[in-house]
Amino acid sequence: MKIEFEKLTARIARYERQEEKKRLAWAKSNSSAIKTLRAKLLDIGGTSISPQPHPYIRFIADHGRPQDFPAIIRVMKPSDCHGNVFELWVNRTKRSRLVAICIGYALTDDGDGGMWCPHSWALRKTKGVVSIIETTVSRTKYFGIAYVPSPNSHKNAEGLW
After folding, report:
1. Average pLDDT over residues 59-88
2. I want to staple 142 with a disulfide (CB 3.0 to 4.6 A). Which of 67, 71, 96, 119 is the partner?
3. Is the pTM of this model over 0.85?
């Protein structure tokens, strides 16, 4: 049993080293976008940004913007914001009034100034008022890109503002 545990521990350590190498390579190849985004986010608030890689960081750094809409909490699966938003979108009805989904970063107040983390959320428009639909835990600020998925295209939801 002890030998199996040691083998497992060694495999986990190897895996963690490989993942850290990937993260560092990603950070190096995206350093310009990270620097741009860091300046924008920390100017809005918070004290740090998650080192977690984001596949759209360059697009978010160049085209993202603060989304200062009131948030409505709709708790779904914990730690699965991307899946939750996808589920909301594919199951939407006219009554749901969902108008876009968003990718970007959200600021979570952890009592230590807050950390920006990769995040997804939905937007709803009711009687001309746009609201953020948050599916995990309460966030204090949002920064990202809103878009309207359609069968044939992905277009930016500029008309919302």
Report:
1. 94
2. 67
3. no
